[in-house]
Description:
This protein is of the alpha+beta class. It is built from eight helices and eight strands. The protein has helices at 6-22, 79-91, 104-110, 121-124, 142-152, 172-192, 203-213, 225-230; strands at 32-36, 43-46, 62-65, 70-72, 97-101, 130-133, 157-160, 164-169. It has an eight-stranded mixed beta sheet, sandwiched between helices. The longest helix is centred in the C-terminal third of the chain and has 21 residues, at 172-192. The mean pLDDT is 94.
Amino acid sequence: xxxxxxxxxxxxxxxxxxxxxxxxxxxxxxxxxxxxxxxxxxxxxxxxxxxxxxxxxxxxxxxxxxxxxxxxxxxxxxxxxxxxxxxxxxxxxxxxxxxxxxxxxxxxxxxxxxxxxxxxxxxxxxxxxxxxxxxxxxxxxxxxxxxxxxxxxxxxxxxxxxxxxxxxxxxxxxxxxxxxxxxxxxxxxxxxxxxxxxxxxxxxxxxxxxxxxxxxxxxxxxxxxxxxxxxxxx
Length: 234
């Protein structure tokens, strides 16, 4: 169920927006999910600024390039949105889908000095696959773009301290699935209590479990996607 055509990307990306709204991941008209377009280097789709996530459709997604210039569709697009997404898509050709969201649970964990702890099986999926980026205010300057990309490296997840998260996936399906796992991991951590009273698995077990959880490689999210889509039919 990977995305082979622009039409398929539009359908699955719009579904990801609507599913994110159902899960409460939206933030008014802010935050974004983008997806690159097959066989169009530097082109990706993003939401029209001003629409709620539940208003996004395959038809009203806007095609832009990594400089944020509109290639087709009706704008506007959010400047900070394309600054973040354009930077990630340009630096990470493997990132077919990029989620930048302001989810309460993740913002709360991003503000904790210890970051995401290996407290649950969900958190262990990110045991060696998450980094952090220091908060630098609303403006995303060229220097901050470089810092963000440097912090992200080749990881699938980045905690934006006091801000939110970035998730990268080789497909919309993988990126959405990983976002769901990260959200749950952060919720569990917030419910768990004081750090000094928590049980943390042995690092050897953490590493082994991480490798087990990654055994499907970039097929993550494919088998789960139809079940997610079923939520939109209720």
